[in-house]
Design brief:
By secondary structure, this protein is α+β, with helices and mostly antiparallel strands. It has one domain (about 5-160): Nucleoside Triphosphate Pyrophosphohydrolase (Alpha-Beta Complex), CATH 3.90.79. Helices cover about 25% and strands about 30% of the residues. It is built from five helices and eleven strands; from the N terminus they run αββββααββββαβββα. Strands 1, 2, 3, 4, 5, 6, 7 and 8 form an eight-stranded mixed sheet that branches. The longest helix is centred in the middle third of the chain and has 13 residues, at about 75-85.
Length: about 210
């Protein structure tokens, strides 16, 4: 798939907004796609630091977090959390790029709202994912909430033979969940459901799966 075609498909993608976003607590994540070349397009993921108060402690995720009163909207939440967690001020990149006539750093699309699982958080929450396009990988400075940052090639997810199974125990029974394993990291759950939506938007035949 050509890089331009990939971007056009994401720009034209129409996400679903959950009605429950009007009364449930909200959060947002930033999905950064590095497009240096067609073959090397990759997604920025973080490994969350171990924290007993974080329901996603130690998980692979996208930069993001809860909506705060000062945030204008979900997009603002995603940008703020990205700057706080990995030190990437994407608004500054957009401003610098605009001066040279580039659209580097723009939010090109959003994905559908996702309601969190009761398995993870006792109180349901809506997560809104926003996709940003950058021409080159930015310099990242992780804060205390982030143990590591990882760029994963998009083609790795498109090659479905890389999908595996992650076993977990839920209410005393074993559950098998789809996953990817990349450089020793397990990518599954909420994060994988977002990646799968990107893949479907790009025309990949990704099966629907049950999420607790």
């Amino acid at each position: 798939m050509g890089l331009r075609n990939m971007v056009e498909q994401l720009v034209s993608y129409r996400a679903k907004k959950a009605l429950s976003r009007l009364w449930l607590k909200r959060s947002a994540v930033a999905i950064v796609i590095d497009q240096a070349t067609t073959e090397q397009a990759s997604l920025l993921l973080i490994k969350r630091a171990d924290n007993e108060r974080d329901p996603w402690s130690g998980h692979m995720a996208f930069p993001g977090g809860r909506y705060e009163s000062g945030d204008k909207n979900g997009l603002a939440t995603a940008k703020r959390e990205m700057q706080e967690e990995v030190g990437f001020n994407i608004d500054q990149l957009v401003a610098d790029s605009a001066a040279s006539g580039s659209i580097d750093g723009q939010c090109i699309a959003r994905l559908s709202d996702i309601k969190t699982s009761k398995r993870v958080t006792p109180n349901a929450m809506i997560v809104s994912p926003y996709i940003f396009s950058v021409q080159n990988k930015p310099k990242l400075v992780a804060n205390h909430e982030v143990a590591d940052t990882v760029w994963v090639p998009l083609r790795f997810f498109l090659e479905l033979e890389n999908r595996g199974v992650y076993e977990m125990i839920y209410k005393d029974r074993k559950i098998e969940m789809p996953c990817y394993r990349y450089q020793g990291n397990v990518i599954w759950g909420l994060t994988l459901s977002m990646i799968d939506e990107i893949l479907r938007a790009l025309g990949a035949d990704i099966p629907q799966w049950y999420r607790l």
